[in-house]
Specification:
The chain has 178 residues and is α/β, with parallel strands linked by helices. It has 7 helices and 5 strands; from the N terminus they run E-H-E-H-E-H-H-E-H-E-H-H. A 5-stranded parallel beta sheet has the order 3-2-1-4-5, with helices on both faces. The longest helix has 19 residues. It is globular, with a radius of gyration of 16 Å.
């Protein structure tokens, strides 16, 4: 079964890729993440994925666009709802590409993170499956969180300290002064 997997970063790819290959999926990755800011962070995550993909013999499709401005337009003044737009945009892009290129199913490495909203990802995945006719493959990859983290550290892969957007960066690092 040909499966297109949205990839947020290299370290988050390790466990899901292993699981999917064990189940017999022919996996291709897609790196599409207009939420990642600043651009140097976006590049660093892409380079890390490229490094890992070469070692794992994973074919990755690299989006030619980086519509950061659209992400900012859609999330400005709606910061508390930003994750819904972010997840929706990336899953929609993946589902549409999966339909265009005739994949049997699509999924995302976002299902590996213990910090992501799995109920929303699953709901959106099924919504875009209905719109495109391509199956959404859901698996809770969080059970392999520690394993993936340990392997990424052993491989000395860059591990990002925040989800990706400027809002999550602030939440991670900003400590309000008293």
């Amino acid at each position: 079964m040909k499966l297109l997997m949205h990839i947020c970063c290299g370290p988050c790819t390790i466990y899901p890729l292993k699981e999917l290959r064990t189940k017999g999926f022919d996996v291709t990755g897609i790196f599409y993440n207009p939420n990642i800011h600043p651009y140097r962070e976006y590049q660093k995550r892409g380079q890390t994925l490229q490094e890992y993909a070469q070692k794992a013999y994973l074919n990755v499709i690299w989006s030619e666009s980086y519509p950061m401005e659209e992400f900012l337009r859609q999330t400005a003044f709606k910061e508390s709802d930003r994750c819904i737009y972010c997840l929706s945009e990336r899953l929609k892009y993946t589902a549409e590409l999966a339909a265009k290129d005739k994949y049997d199913a699509f999924t995302s490495t976002l299902l590996y993170s213990k910090y992501q909203k799995h109920d929303i990802i699953q709901e959106l995945g099924h919504e875009f499956s209905g719109k495109t006719g391509v199956s959404f493959y859901y698996q809770d990859f969080r059970v392999g969180w520690s394993e993936g983290v340990n392997i990424s550290k052993e491989m000395q892969l860059y591990r990002q300290p925040y989800c990706g957007c400027i809002y999550s960066e602030k939440e991670r690092f900003y400590k309000q002064q008293l």
